[in-house]
Every structure is written in C-alpha cells, then in structure tokens.
Design goal:
Elements lengths: L2 H23 L4 H10 L9 H11 L2
Helix pairs in contact: 1-2, 2-3
C-alpha cells in the first residue's frame, strides 16, 4: 500500500470520527457542525454544492 493511499484512508477515518463527534457533542447546531465537517473533508474534490447551500441556509438569519 502506498503512503498516499494510507493517508487518504486515515483522512476518511478522521472525517467520519469528526462527524460522529459533532453529532454527539454539539449543543447549539449539530447539523451545522456536521455540514461543516463534510464540506471541509480530506477529499481532493470540491465541496458538494448542497452542503454549501445548507450551511448558507442555516447561518443566514
């Protein structure tokens, strides 16, 4: 296994852990915390537009 493959796998595990923690520990807006983690994941791809739209919806008064 190459180091980049291991790095990607560890990044995915870290992202899933962060999502789980955000769901359990967030007191104010857990759905917002989860969306932020998903939008700033370790993927090399841009964030999904639906996540960005939902963040804007949740944060705009």
């Amino acid at each position: 296994m190459s180091s980049s493959t291991i790095r990607k796998a560890l990044g995915a595990v870290k992202d899933q852990t962060s999502i789980g923690l955000a769901k359990v520990t967030s007191n104010i807006a857990p759905e917002l915390d989860v969306l932020i983690v998903k939008t700033t994941s370790h993927d090399d791809e841009p964030a999904e537009e639906r996540h960005i739209r939902e963040i804007l919806h949740l944060t705009s008064g």
